[in-house]
Amino acid sequence: MPRLDIRRISLPTPFPVGAIHTYLILGDRPTLVDTGVASEASWDALGAGLREHGLTVRDLERVVLTHGHVDHYGQAARIRDESGAEIWAHARTAPLIASYPWSMPPVIAANVDFFRRNGAPPAVAERIGEFLAGAVELQRGVQVDHVVEHGARLPVCGERHLELFEVAGHYPGHLVLYDADSRELIGGDHLLDDGTTVPFLFLKDWSEGIRPRSLVLFLQSLDHLARLEVDRVHPGHGTFELAHRAWIERIRKHHARIRGRIRHHLEKAPATVWEIARRLYRSQLEAHTFLVFSEVVGNLDLLERDGDVECSTDDDGTFRYRIVGAEHRRPRPPVLRLDREGRWLEDDEEITHPGTIELLTRALARDADGGFFVSIGSERRAVKVEDAPYVVRRVEGEGAGWLLWLGAGLVEPLDPSTLAIGAENVLYALVRDGLRARFGRAAYYQLAEHIEEDGAGGFALRMPDGTRRALTLASEPS
Ligand SMILES: [Zn+2]
After folding, report:
1. Could you read off the pLDDT of 389-415 as tens digits, one per residue?
2. Number of structural domains the chain divides into
């Protein structure tokens, strides 16, 4: 496959991060990925960049926004006014950018409050607020014309399309654009080469005490990215020279190292986020307070989730973290577990009552951090999922497609493009909001009967109506 025509147009921002890279995709309909901030300098640079490709802003037909940070979406509204271009964004991002910047004052106040309560001196917290307030002029709210979900397709030319994947942790609904044919990925701010600080605090709902665990989400999204074959990453800022899997490895190691250092620090005495940040980052803290905080808070979230640290509140409302010694770990409730075969266990005792199994299967849900839980009545319990949350027990053809029977009366259509092969040839598919289902042995053989070689070294799935769907069969990490 020839490479897609993806051209970089870099636009100035007034931020320490420097220029933002937007990407022009020259297909059937000229498409711009991200927009730069709303400033005259940025507008002029965009015009000049488009002119190099024989275009003007008016020629743009679509704008895809990777996420709602000001440097990525700020001048989308002006481009839309000028060109009538369709704005594309993820369903989680769309309402946020439609309401900026008028929705921002409480968000700014929430940020100031968060930094204060985590031990930042008042002057530092105020500076964060001023920085965010300053960004208000660099954006205009924009209506999203085309709201997408994970796995949506962006037609580019002829049959050629890009896949849009949601990757969490930098911004709610952050999208990356993937070209499976030429193995290129437009990464927004999710993949940055010095990207050790990309998980970002998101404090819109902080006044209600709600805050996504950005780093937890971010690390989970890397599992999905690791499955893609990528030869080239187009980043939102700077250069990206590393192979993407080497980058993923580096990110994981970096954060593990940070957690080691935080733990070491807390073993001496309980501390606030600010105290930990000052200790760990000294010189960078002043210039990069927001990034450093994002990184420390993210790793504290992970340590807290794993029961290694706990957070308490001082009389004045300041949060303070301390190490949980082995002798102080709270007695735990029985562990609810879903094993590889799809059996439910409570402290290693198998649950066999069909009614209970049905109740648990139907109640199984994913929390904001990507962990699993069941709520039954007023009780909410974490579930340890060993492999996939669902097991395909039976496959049946209906009409043009295959149906997957997941037990407990749950039936889901198979999307062949999500089929993947794991260790020991186990087959997986994505169902129900992108959750994984593992094919049980019987279901595997049922479907395998309809998988055949396509004669070109690949495989195709025969559908019940006799048509064939080419399979990519990505491999799952074992
Ligand atoms: Zn960003």
Report:
1. 899 999 999 888 999 998 877 899 999
2. 4
pLDDT digit string, tens, across residues 234-249? 999 999 998 999 999 9
**CA 199 to ligand 1 center in whole angstroms:** 9
Q: What is the pLDDT of residues 100-155, one digit of tens each?
A: 888 999 999 999 999 999 999 999 999 999 999 999 999 999 999 999 988 899 99
Model confidence at 227, in pLDDT bands (50, 70, 90)?
confident
Output the pTM of the full model: 0.71
Domain membership of residue 329 (yes or no) is: no
In the reported structure, the alpha carbon of residue 189 is separated from the centroid of ligand 1 by a whole-number distance in angstroms of: 5
Q: What sign does the dihedral 117-123-129-132 (CA atoms) show?
A: negative
Structural domain harbouring 21: 5-100+139-240
Residue 198 CA to its chain's centroid (Å):
11
Task: Give the CATH number, domain containing residue 463.
Answer: 2.30.270
Asked whether residue 346 is assigned to any structural domain, the reply reads: yes
CA 133/CA 105 separation, integer angstroms: 8
Residue 346 pairs in a beta bridge with: 336, 349
Tell me, in angstroms, the distance from the centre of ligand 1 to residue 69's CA.
Answer: 5
Let me know whether 186 and 288 are in one domain: no
User: Of 367, 385, 403, which residue is a domain's last?
Assistant: 385
Who surrounds ion ligand 1 at CB < 5 A? 69, 189
Specify whether 364 is located in the same domain as 215: no
Counting Cβ atoms within 10 Å, is residue 361 exposed (0-12), middle (13-18) or buried (19+)? buried
Is the alpha carbon torsion for 292, 298, 300, 302 positive or negative? negative
24 alpha carbon to ligand 1 midpoint, in Å?
A: 19
Q: Are residues 360 and 307 in the same domain?
A: no
Smallest CA-to-CA distance from 176 within 168, 187, 163 is with 187
Domain-located, residue 330 = no
How many Å lie between the centroid of ligand 1 and the Cα of residue 208? 23
Domain CATH for 340:
3.10.540.10
Measure the CA–CA gap between 348 and 343, rounded to whole angstroms: 10
What are the residues whose beta carbons fall under 8 Å from the beta carbon of 354, sequence distance 6 or more? none
Residue type, 438: R
* Cα 156 to averaged position of ligand 1 atoms, centre (Å): 25
- Give the contacts of 306 (CB within 8 A, at least 6 positions apart): none
Residue 297 maps to a domain = yes
